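Hi R.,

Here's the input for the EPU complex you asked about:
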Amino acid sequence: MNLLAGLEEIVKENEPLAKHTWFRLGGPARYMVRPRNKAELLDVVRRCHENEVDIYVLGRGSNILVADEGLDAVVVQMYYKNFGQVSIDKETGTVIAEAGVSLSQFVRRCAGEGLSGTECLIGIPGTIGGAVKLNAGGRFGDIGNVTESVKVIDSSGYEFTRSRDEIYFGYRMTNIIAKFIIEAEFSLVPDDPDRISRLLKEVWMLKKNSQPMNSRSAGCVFKNPRALSAGALIDKVGLKGHNIGGAFISEKHANFIEAREGATSSDVLQLIDLIRQRIQDRFEVDLELEINLWKQ
Ligand code: EPU
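And here is the predicted structure with EPU in place:
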């Protein structure tokens, strides 16, 4: 392990990524690293840069599908125990959160402090880093609405801050190309805690009633095509409940694939291909993946 020599305390070799994803699928990473601080992160990033080794950034693994073959690369996890600080200024509504903070805990914490603006994010898993990079959200809004600035590190180890007016927050995407989000600053609005709590309940209930919350999945598999719903299209072609091996199209929401006993990433990928084909044949619509596919 020449590449990461001296960093043995934070590196695991051939670490099964299935352990670290919500799908609980996928092969091993050649190296998995959990830097304990920014200095260690920079050290890893620079070594990989010098040796032209690919880095994949992992948060809580809630939006990724890792191929069964695994990755001959370095996976760096922005772990909540190492990048999990939150600081809150109740007066101004400014909240700063590090990349590894769990999004759901962040939402509850802000609500508990009487700060409004993140209620639309309840029920979305993942970390602050992943949520900001992909502009997590749903029908009621997205994280971009409340993001003021983002501190990042690029793949050569250069650290800088992007302010709100430099960031484009699109539909499940941003123009942030830097590999690592270190922390983000949010601007929230003080509000009545009871009102915030009611709103949280409302959004939560809507999700709970329409999405399979307790199954092994990675959320919605496809982006909604312009003015259409991917879930409704998949439902219309009668694919709800359809399976390949251990991968099943959810009965509750057709844009979710659930991994059940014995599932492999290959099952999920084949099911994805089948869905795409059916939707193309019937509606002439190309469904675009919403989940990230980690495949070499
Ligand atoms: N529908 C069906 N059949 C289904 C699923 C949905 O007919 O199997 C219909 C619904 O009845 C509704 C329409 O399709 O009329 C839209 O469905 P829904 O309200 O469930 O929302 P969605 O567009 O499927 C989006 C996001 C979700 C987010 C919800 C709620 C995408 C791809 N999905 O879902 O995000 O939670 O709105 O805000 O943008 C995710 O990003 O992983 C995700 C789940």
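One thing worth noting: The chain has a mean pLDDT of 97.

Cheers,
M.
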